């Protein structure tokens, strides 16, 4: 099963599209597997079976993975993970990242994390995550999650595809206004003491 996000869905027309690594994938409301009124919202995570037809890609057996059927909001933090894939393990690495377990989605939702995507060029891959708080704090919170042991096993499996530990990259940015004011105050204090 593939995992993606609903790009848009028009309930009056009964169809929509899922964003996926293969491109936008068409779906019809009759392929949504849920009780009651079948509706999905923009940005809602779903799992689906990808079918290639004469008309193009189509999503079947669509299951919502979260109840966050809300409009996208700007995340406060973005974390970029840089990974060097071991030679010969590129395809296995991709398969691993395309088969994210359901418990992983639940844990991310509980922690306010959102996977944006994973990109690969040769043996180098980057993974982008948005979050409501710094990634390190989210990972501390993950230790209290019921799926923490599963997550540690997942991380160990990921490391089997890599030459070394993943590198967490921080954005290049100027000091925040508060940090700039603190620096100015410290410089003033040191000027008056000399």
Spans with pLDDT under 50 lasting ≥5 residues?
69-74, 176-184, 188-194
Shape: globular
Instruction: State the share of residues found in helices, binned by percent.
Output: 25-40%
In CATH, what is the homologous superfamily of the largest domain? Dimeric alpha+beta barrel
Q: Note the main sheet.
A: 5 strands, antiparallel
Rg is 21 Å
CATH architectural designation of the largest domain: 2-Layer Sandwich
Query: What distance lies between the first and last C-alpha atoms, to the nearest angstrom?
Result: 68 Å
* CATH class descriptor name of the largest domain: Alpha Beta
Any idea of the CATH topology of the largest domain?
Alpha-Beta Plaits
Number of strands: 9
Indicate the structural class. Answer: alpha+beta
Secondary structure tally, helices: 5
Order of helices and strands: EEEEEEHHEEHHEH
Q: What does it look like?
A:
This protein is an alpha+beta fold and about 190 residues long. The model is unreliable at about 70-75, about 175-185 and about 190-194 (pLDDT under 50). It is globular, with a radius of gyration of 21 Å. The chain has a five-stranded antiparallel beta sheet with strand order 3-2-1-4-5, with no helix packed on it. It contains five helices and nine strands, in the order ββββββααββααβα. Strand 2 (about 15-20) and strand 3 (about 25-30) form a beta hairpin. It has two domains: about 1-65, OB fold (Dihydrolipoamide Acetyltransferase, E2P) (Beta Barrel), CATH 2.40.50; about 75-170, Dimeric alpha+beta barrel (Alpha-Beta Plaits, 2-Layer Sandwich), CATH 3.30.70. It has helices spanning about 90-100, 100-110, 135-140, 150-160, 175-194; strands at about 1-10, 15-20, 25-30, 45-55, 55-65, 75-85, 115-120, 125-130, 165-170.
